[in-house]
Every structure is written in structure tokens, then in C-alpha cells.
């Protein structure tokens, strides 16, 4: 690999790293053909982890970090002094294929700054995906970041080659967008999401290939004043209105050459983590956005306990729950029991009566769960009444350190 | 899990039914040896506490012909149990066979649903073992790194990997599925796998030194790894939980880790403390203004976009664009180009198009004065012998193309738009509308032109009997006359 390309790679990987959506999951299972490289496994694979604990699954790069937009939170905004670079279409194709052959990556996640026009940029990105699929028979994973300002037909063409399309809403409210991302409009973004959502549903029904792994989005946490209840309400709306597969929460992180309008600070990682847990509650544990909001303190999720535990602590009258009798919905609300544990409980209790030790073999969260459940040989009476229960279950108040 | 202690050392056949049966299996994941032995033991009713499982260099003592005993019949096990066994056999725990046999024993002794009781200590332990194998396989698929051998063609790649368990054979098919067109070799301390684009071979153990010392893309990969790391989010526990240190020595990018960790705090502090800078680049005011001006401003520009676009369903020769003068009073919208249209690149030139022209003439309309186009711009067909049989576009395809149709009609600016057939109605109205009941003037909703619904001329060609055909044709001509009057 020559030096010039390596240098571009450094610039354009650095410029892309603030996008959290790394997943390579959800694509239909594919295998390499005689002359085509690549496969997808359904669940996705993380090929490495960086010291920030994040998964390296796809080659996550920008086609270029030149950008005409001026979004205040963004390292690539046009008024930033960062170093700029631009890949050619062929360079991205080569990097993807050669990295893939060495088993470094699952595929490509391509995004771009807006150059010339949204349409031009979208066309160039789609061209990369098209070349990979057509000229190299590439069957690995391709995630394209769609540009909501691009013409609808270009967004739709991208879906022919990509496994996943995503459009980042970045800021959850229209006011924040106006203030921090003047070239963006919430209406345009939602319109494009709606369009992609419709096409995905139609294609599924007609058994055509169109962004088979669905669409996702990213929201920045901590760049504006939106509270957690509003964040989760927004996500809940996005899941139901556009059939999104995932909403990613990205703690606003210090960037080189930050704008004076948004001074850098340590990223709110704990808050980001709690938002993912709350998101999980609405996607997998059948909580409504309102119930999540009820578990917050004035709109913000507690940092010392996870939101499901916070909800249970506020609704103690519903507990303890009998693991041998309760229905699935109620079991899912027990802190420390995940969907797998609940399904295992439901299966096992058809054949046996569960004691506390048995439950301990089905979940790794027994410490949290035991105050909220009844097993054949166990009642938590004294425990669940205790006023200091929260303090006993809270995670040690340890500031996530930068060192 | 107790194995029972051997009372006597010599009985080797379970057929004796007393004392301890010793089963010796090959090292590694001896699935077939275990299967054979388990069948025998179950067939002769040997309970788990009377079996001693040994792993050694000697081949399985229960090979099908070895001691003249008939092989036990295949065991009928619940599917989940049958699926669990090969996922546990590669585990390096020497107790694996004893545990699996205990499971089989209990399942065949009446506890058919045992595996559903995940809280049972035996089941729990087997689940943990299965999970460990799943993780080991997953990590091998994830963390193995190929290096190119030499620079000749075809390209050859080699990798060295050290799995925790005996999983090479279980792990190899993943690499076949993924790297089928490449020649590759995976070396491990226990064995090797070789793929030559046709067949998979397993061979003797390899050595790390057999893998080339480097690869032309490794530095670039390390560059990528370093650049995608965000120093403000340092979280070493999360990294080590998912990528334990034992894997690092065979992953070239991990050499960057110590320096990334060392510099993270200073890099973050620098970003936070550095006062905001004035932009030094010029403000590209003109480019920013021009950016929003991307929409096609003429029919020609729009047509150029349509021409270079990709057909939604592959196969069409070319996009077939609309035809007719800008400012035409009447626009006709058909379904999609047919065989002839696809070849000639013009709308309504095939048999239906000819019939359409004739009907227009009879209705007193001049075809060249009207604008004629299709809802879908590419031909879709199924090949039957030498013939390409037209295939109706799906609703999804119609909506893919509707953007263009809308813009196209905006540029042409007709007074009235005639939908020929159901597909055109769907494209213009955005929803299915029954044609027979709505034939005639029709409001498509939110459009700056009057609407009209009639049949597609190809419908007239398909009618089987001549009388019906003539009648339908007359009705079609009548519709066109009415359109002419409405447009006047």
C-alpha cells in the first residue's frame, strides 16, 4: 500500500470514527461464489477492538471529509481546520477488497462529507458499492450512509447494493438542528427515512433486494439540551414510524479543532450507556417510552442504577414476581433477567419447579434479580422492603476515567 | 460429574455389562468415535457410571469391526440433543465425553425434554461448554489474520491461529464460504486446513514460522486501527473483555495498543483545553449556494439522469424516455416499455403502440402533438427460449419510478394526463384504483393537471374474440375522443 493512500486512510478513518453504527448484522446469509469474494453470517463479526472498547467490524471511512455543511458538532464542518483528503472510488474499492481478503473486516461502511452537491456525493458513494458488487462480485457487508438531501431516486439506487442504509438525525429536535446544523432539516431527514422505510417493506414483500438489513440512525448525546425522556420518546417514534433497526447513541466527544459554539468536554459515556439500556427496554422488554420516562429523575436516567432497575425500584408494589408462575411480560420486567433468561425460565418450568439456585444457573444477574423474585425455596420479604435497596444494588459511583 | 471408579481394569467390551467399560477415543474432537461408542453403550445398557472415557493416541476401541461386536443402532435423540453433541465434542475438557454420555443416557432413559431444563446442573454445564466452543469459533473467525504468500498469481494466503479448543474442522467451513475464490492455508498447533478453491484438506500441525513475516497491507490496516480509535473514550476493560490479550500476539494491529493507551489522556486534554480556532480556510460561499441547486432544471437534464440510472430489475437494454413536445396539452402514461420499445429506445412502437397510434388517428388526435411516456422506464421480462416475455412491474417498482414521472410531467406541463391501464393509475394516484369503475375523467389528487383513466392498448390485443375486441376498441377510441374534447 503506497504512502499517499495510507495518509488518506488515516485522515478519512479519523474523520469517520464519530459515527457509532458499526454493526455488520442483519444481512441475509450469503456465501462467496466461484469468482466472488465474501459472505455474511447474519449476526455480524467484530474483527478487532480498539482501546476505547469499540468493535472494529467494517472499514468505516469517509469518501471525503471536504464538506460544504457547517454542523457545529462535526469535526468535518466546512469551518474546521482539520486536514482534508478525498479517496477515489477505486481506492475505496481496493482497500475494501484487500482488507477483506486478509480477514480484517466484514465489509465497508461508507459515509462522506457533502461535496459539490448532495446528489453528486450520493452518486459517488453508490458508485463504490456498485463497483464492489458488480466488478468484484463482493458479497460482504456494505453499509451506506444516505444523504437525506439527495434526490429520492439516488437514495433508492443505493438500496440496490447496500445491506444497510442509514441517515443520521444527529440532533433530536428541530430547534437544535436549526441552531447547530443549519444546512439540515428535520423534515427532510424524516422524509428520506420514511421513503427508505417504505422501499424496504415493499422490497421484502416483493422479494427484491433493497437494504435487506434495514435502516438505522444515530443521535448525538450531550451536544444539545435534550433530556433522556425526550431522546427515548424520539427513538420510540423512529422505531415505530420508520421501522428502524437501530438507533445509535453517540456521546458528544471532544474533537480536534472544536467550534467555539460547542466547547469540548469529556464525553458523557455513562449517560450514553444508560440510553442504550433504556432503548433495549423499549425494543426487547416491552416497556413504553412513557414507562421509561417514569423511571427517570426529572427526565434524566439515573447513572447509579440501570433504568430497568430504576423502574422496578419505583414500582415495588408489582414485585416480587414468582418465577414459577409469572407471565413472560412480567418476568421481563424483573431486573437482572434478560430475554434469554426469561425464555429459559419459561421452558424449564414446564418440566420442573425452579429454586433459587436454578435461577442462578439461568442468569448472571441474580444479585439484582433476587430482591424482586420468588422461587420455590425463596422469598425476598425482608430484602425487597428495605429502604436501602437502591444503595445496595447501585453500581459503585466510579467516574469513568480517561486514564 | 462422577465417572465411577474402575473395579476391574480389563473388561473392554460393554457387552459384558458389568464392571467398567473403557472407551478410548482419539485426541481432539473425535465425534465419530464418540458416536460409535455411545451407540454401543446404549445398545448394551451401560450406565454412565460404568464407563471410563480415555483420550489417547490409540484409535477408538469401538471401531465398527474391531472386536467383532455389531455396531449399535443409530440413536434416536431429540434434535436439540443431536445438535448439541458436535458443539461440545471439540471442548478441551477431558470430561466432555462423560458429560455428553450422561446426557444421552438420561434422555434415552425417559428424560426426553432434559435439554429444556437449562437449570439442571448437567445441562447447565453442557450449555457453558457449548457457549465456550461458540465463542472460540467466533473469535477464530474474527481474529485470524491472513498474510499473502509471495506475489504470484493466483494469490495465496496463510494464517497462524491458536484456538482454545479442538475447533479447526468446525471453523474451516466459514473460511470456505467467505474466501472460496482464494487459495488459503490455516495453520494451528493441532492441525492445518488447506483450501485450493475446490476442496478442503486437513493436514498435520503447522508452525508459526511457516507464515510470512508480514503483508503489504498490514501497515495500512494498523493505520486504520489507530485512526478509528477515539482517545476520549478509552475503555480498556471493554476491549480486554472482547479481545483478551492471549489473541494479541497473532493480530498485527495490536502492536499499536500500548502507544494508543499512553497518549490517550494527553490527546484528549489537548482537544478539551485548546481554545477554538478561527477558520483559516476561505468560506466557500458560492459552492454552498450552488449546492442546493442540484435539481434537474429541464426535461433534458432529467432525461440524462434517467438514461444513466440503473434498471431496478436487471436486464433492460436501455431506459426508454418519454417522447413528445414540451407544452403538449395531452400526456399519455403507459405501463412500461415492451420488447420492441426496449430495443428501439422509444415508447409505444411495438404492436400495442401501433394500435394506439391508429386509435388516436381515428379519434382525431395527432400522436406527434401529444406527450407519450411510461410509468416504469425499463423493460422487465422473463426469457422463454428466444422470446422475452413481458412481466408486469410490481407496486414497489412503480413507486421507485414515480419520482421521475412526476418531474417529467412537471416539465411537460400538460392540461390533461391520460392513464393507460392499472399501472399508470397506480403511478399517478399513488394507490391502486379499479379501472373499470373509474374509467373516464378522474382526479389523481394534488396534481396540476386534469386526469383521465382508460385501458392500456395491449388489453385490446389480448382479448380473445373478435367481437369483443372490436367493441373494446371502439370504446377506447371513444375515450380518446372525449380526451380530445377535454383538452380543447
From TrEMBL, chain B:
Record-linked SMART domains: UDG, UreE_C
Pfam families in the cross-refs: DUF4130, UDG
GO MF assignments: 4 iron, 4 sulfur cluster binding; deaminated base DNA N-glycosylase activity; metal ion binding
Segments traversing the membrane: none
InterPro entries in the record: DNA_repair_put (IPR023875), DUF4130 (IPR025404), UDG_Type-4/5 (IPR051536), Ura-DNA_glyco_family4 (IPR005273), Uracil-DNA_glycosylase-like (IPR005122), Uracil-DNA_glycosylase-like_sf (IPR036895)
Sequence ranges assigned to domain Uracil-DNA glycosylase-like in this UniProt record: 321-481
Gene Ontology terms describing biological process: DNA repair
Alphabetical list of CDD domains matching this protein: UDG-F4_TTUDGA_SPO1dp_like
Record NCBIfam families: SAM_7_link_chp, UDG_fam_dom
Family stated for the protein in its record: Belongs to the uracil-DNA glycosylase (UDG) superfamily. Type 4 (UDGa) family.
Name under which the protein is recorded: Type-4 uracil-DNA glycosylase
Amino acid at each position: 500500500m503506497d504512502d499517499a493512500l495510507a495518509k488518506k486512510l488515516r485522515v478519512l478513518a479519523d474523520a469517520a470514527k464519530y459515527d457509532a453504527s458499526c454493526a455488520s448484522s442483519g444481512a441475509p446469509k450469503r456465501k462467496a461464489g466461484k469468482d466472488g469474494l465474501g459472505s455474511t453470517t447474519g449476526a455480524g463479526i467484530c474483527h478487532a477492538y480498539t482501546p476505547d472498547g469499540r468493535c472494529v467490524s467494517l472499514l468505516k471511512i469517509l469518501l471525503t471529509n471536504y464538506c460544504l455543511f457547517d454542523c457545529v458538532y462535526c469535526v468535518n464542518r466546512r469551518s474546521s481546520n482539520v486536514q482534508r483528503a478525498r479517496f477515489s472510488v477505486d481506492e475505496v474499492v481496493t482497500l475494501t477488497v484487500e482488507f477483506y481478503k486478509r480477514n480484517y473486516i466484514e465489509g465497508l461502511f461508507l459515509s462522506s462529507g457533502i461535496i459539490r452537491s448532495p446528489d453528486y456525493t450520493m452518486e459517488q458513494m453508490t458508485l463504490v458499492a456498485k463497483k464492489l458488487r458488480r466488478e468484484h462480485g463482493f458479497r460482504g457487508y456494505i453499509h451506506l450512509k444516505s444523504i437525506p438531501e439527495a434526490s429520492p431516486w439516488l437514495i433508492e439506487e443505493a438500496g440496490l447494493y447496500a445491506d444497510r442504509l442509514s441517515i443520521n438525525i444527529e440532533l433530536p429536535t428541530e430547534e437544535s438542528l436549526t441552531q447547530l446544523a443549519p444546512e439540515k432539516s428535520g423534515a427532510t431527514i424524516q422524509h428520506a427515512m420514511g421513503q427508505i422505510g417504505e422501499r424496504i417493506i415493499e422490497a421484502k414483500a416483493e422479494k427484491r433486494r433493497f437494504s435487506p438489513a434495514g435502516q438505522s440512525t444515530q443521535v448525538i448525546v450531550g451536544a444539545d439540551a435534550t433530556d433522556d425522556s425526550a431522546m427515548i420518546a424520539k427513538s420510540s417514534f423512529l422505531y415505530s414510524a420508520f421501522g428502524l433497526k437501530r438507533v445509535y447513541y453517540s456521546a458528544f466527544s471532544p474533537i480536534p479543532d472544536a467550534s467555539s459554539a460547542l466547547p469540548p468536554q469529556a464525553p458523557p459515556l455513562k449517560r450514553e450507556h444508560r440510553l442504550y439500556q433504556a432503548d433495549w427496554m423499549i425494543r426487547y422488554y416491552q416497556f413504553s417510552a412513557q414507562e421509561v420516562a417514569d423511571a427517570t429523575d426529572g427526565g434524566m436516567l439515573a447513572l447509579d442504577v440501570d433504568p430497568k432497575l430504576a423502574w422496578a425500584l419505583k414500582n415495588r408494589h408489582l414485585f416480587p414476581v414468582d418465577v414459577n408462575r409469572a407471565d413472560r411480560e412480567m418476568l421481563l420486567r424483573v431486573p437482572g433477567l434478560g430475554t434469554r433468561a426469561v425464555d429459559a425460565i419459561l421452558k424449564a418450568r414446564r418440566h420442573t419447579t425452579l429454586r433459587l439456585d436454578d435461577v442462578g444457573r439461568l442468569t448472571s444477574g441474580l444479585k439484582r434479580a433476587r430482591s424482586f423474585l420468588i422461587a420455590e425455596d425463596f422469598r425476598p420479604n425482608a430484602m425487597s422492603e428495605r429502604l436501602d435497596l437502591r444503595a445496595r444494588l447501585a453500581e459503585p459511583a466510579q467516574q469513568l476515567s480517561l486514564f | 460429574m462422577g465417572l465411577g471408579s474402575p473395579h476391574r481394569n480389563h473388561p473392554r467390551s460393554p457387552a459384558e455389562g458389568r464392571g467398567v467399560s473403557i472407551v478410548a477415543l482419539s485426541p481432539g474432537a473425535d465425534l465419530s468415535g464418540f458416536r460409535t461408542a455411545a451407540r454401543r453403550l446404549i445398545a448394551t445398557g451401560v450406565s454412565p457410571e460404568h464407563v471410563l472415557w480415555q483420550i489417547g493416541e490409540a484409535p477408538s476401541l469401538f471401531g465398527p469391526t474391531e472386536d467383532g461386536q455389531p455396531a449399535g443402532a443409530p440413536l434416536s435423540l431429540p434434535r436439540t440433543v443431536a445438535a448439541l453433541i458436535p458443539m461440545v465434542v471439540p471442548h478441551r475438557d477431558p470430561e466432555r465425553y462423560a458429560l455428553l454420555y450422561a446426557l444421552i443416557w438420561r434422555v434415552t432413559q425417559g428424560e426426553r425434554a432434559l435439554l429444556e431444563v437449562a437449570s439442571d446442573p448437567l445441562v447447565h454445564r453442557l450449555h457453558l461448554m457449548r457457549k465456550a466452543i461458540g465463542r472460540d469459533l467466533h473469535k477464530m473467525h474474527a481474529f485470524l489474520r491472513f498474510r499473502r504468500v509471495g506475489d504470484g498469481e493466483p494469490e495465496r494466503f496463510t494464517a497462524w491461529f491458536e484456538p482454545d479448543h479442538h475447533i479447526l474442522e468446525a471453523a474451516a467451513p466459514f473460511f470456505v464460504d467467505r474466501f472460496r475464490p482464494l487459495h488459503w492455508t490455516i495453520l494451528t498447533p493441532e492441525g492445518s486446513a488447506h483450501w485450493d478453491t475446490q476442496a478442503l484438506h486437513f493436514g498435520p500441525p503447522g508452525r508459526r514460522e511457516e507464515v510470512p513475516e508480514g503483508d503489504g497491507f498490514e501497515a495500512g490496516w494498523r493505520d486504520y486501527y489507530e485512526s478509528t480509535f477515539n482517545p476520549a473514550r478509552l475503555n480498556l476493560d471493554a476491549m480486554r473483555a472482547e479481545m483478551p490479550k492471549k489473541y494479541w500476539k497473532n493480530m498485527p494491529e495490536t502492536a499499536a495498543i500500548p502507544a494508543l493507551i499512553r497518549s490517550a489522556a494527553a490527546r484528549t486534554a489537548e482537544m478539551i483545553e485548546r481554545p477554538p480556532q478561527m477558520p483559516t480556510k476561505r468560506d466557500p460561499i458560492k459552492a454552498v449556494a450552488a449546492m442546493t441547486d442540484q435539481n434537474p432544471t429541464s426535461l433534458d437534464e432529467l432525461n440524462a439522469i434517467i438514461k444513466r440510472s440503473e434498471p431496478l430489475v436487471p436486464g433492460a437494454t436501455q431506459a426508454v424516455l418519454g417522447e413528445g413536445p414540451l407544452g403538449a396539452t395531452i400526456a399519455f402514461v403507459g405501463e412500461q416499455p415492451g420488447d420492441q420499445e426496449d430495443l428501439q429506445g422509444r415508447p409505444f412502437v411495438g404492436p400495442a403502440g401501433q394500435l394506439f397510434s391508429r386509435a388516436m388517428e381515428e379519434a382525431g388526435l395527432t400522436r406527434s402533438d401529444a406527450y407519450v411516456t411510461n410509468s416504469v422506464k425499463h423493460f422487465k421480462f422473463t426469457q422463454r427460449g428466444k422470446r422475452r416475455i413481458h412481466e408486469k412491474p410490481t407496486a414497489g417498482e412503480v413507486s421507485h419510478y414515480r419520482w421521475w414521472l412526476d418531474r417529467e410531467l412537471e416539465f411537460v406541463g400538460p392540461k390533461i394526463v391520460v392513464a393507460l391501464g392499472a399501472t399508470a393509475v397506480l403511478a399517478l394516484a399513488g394507490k391502486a384504483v379499479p379501472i373499470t369503475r373509474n374509467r373516464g375523467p378522474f382526479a389523481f389528487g394534488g396534481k396540476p393537471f386534469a386526469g383521465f383513466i382508460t385501458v392500456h392498448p395491449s388489453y385490446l390485443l389480448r382479448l380473445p374474440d373478435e367481437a369483443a375486441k372490436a367493441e373494446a376498441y371502439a370504446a377506447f377510441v371513444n375515450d380518446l375522443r372525449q380526451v380530445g374534447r377535454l383538452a380543447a
